Amino acid sequence: MNIGKIQESVLRRSVFRQLKTKREEVLFGAGSGEDCAILTFPPGQELLVSAAAAVKTEQDAALYGIHAAVNNIAACGGKPAAVWLTVLLPPSAEETELRGLMEQAEQICAGLNIQIAGGHTEVTSAVNRRVLSVTAAGSVPPGRALSASGLHAGTQLVLTKWAGLEGTAIAAREKRQELLSRFPAYLVEEAENFSGFLSVLPESEAAGDCAVCAMTDLSEGGVFGALWEMAEASGVGLEIDLKKIPIRQETVEICNFLDLNPYELLSGGSLLIGADDGYALAERLQKAGIPAAVIGRAVPGNDRVVRNGEEKRFLGPARTDEIYKIF
């Protein structure tokens, strides 16, 4: 395609025609020549805004980018309503690529009941492959927004789903042929299907008002990264039991084969929650069909310790995510 703004005809048939999901909060959204969307929320609701970029996997950029931005809203205890997509394409891109991206984006948003309210699409020589940036907006009742900084000594920590969830799905797709040389097809396919668990909206809603004091969605840096960041933001120490961190066998096998640390691996789709009664919260989540486990607690001081039987390690700031080893 030609460098510059996408032609009007291309926008109409490959972008606007794909947008079908509508939300009542979006009074005015994406359209030809329209540069702004108009949103309205119930009186008193607080606005939440988040952004994310999908740069790790081009094939499923919409899948990972939209979930990342929307999960940030959910981790604040909010309900997402709309997203804006900025798409940068290299001159070598074909219109079919743009249409496929928008079809995937609309499918994901329809499943989450979120409207694509606008964005920007451009062909530029500044990129050599497709780049997607996502901005999400939602709302939360006044005074109900949560952050990662709400832990206090004694708070129990609950982890939903499994460590390394998102990274396992990406690794299974990117290294499929290598993995098939070692593992049966059903294991690799099951790992790829982890991409169906990327949303944390269900656990955010199920957590409700169950004495939750802090939440964060896991992303780069994995479980260890999220634990350290939450403790650092709250000014507390941690006592974590490694054996209680839930992890799927597919993740263990794939990480061993590819020499990845699953606890420092991209873990989108999991939520780390601080609660006064973590066991009650975990039981509530499990009754809602969401895997969850209490993995430790916040303690006074600054030591963030992960114990594995008699062994222990001290957590530090998140390092480069393990997922980059496979690219």
TrEMBL record:
Residues 33-140 form the PurM-like N-terminal domain. It holds the Pfam family AIRS_C. One of its GO terms (biological process) is protein maturation. Coiled coil: none annotated. Residues 153-303 form the PurM-like C-terminal domain. InterPro entries: HypE (IPR011854), PurM-like_C_dom (IPR010918), PurM-like_C_sf (IPR036676), PurM-like_N (IPR016188), PurM-like_N_sf (IPR036921). It comes from the Bacteria. SUPFAM superfamilies: PurM C-terminal domain-like, PurM N-terminal domain-like. Belongs to the HypE family. This is AIR synthase family protein. It comes from Candidatus Eisenbergiella stercorigallinarum.
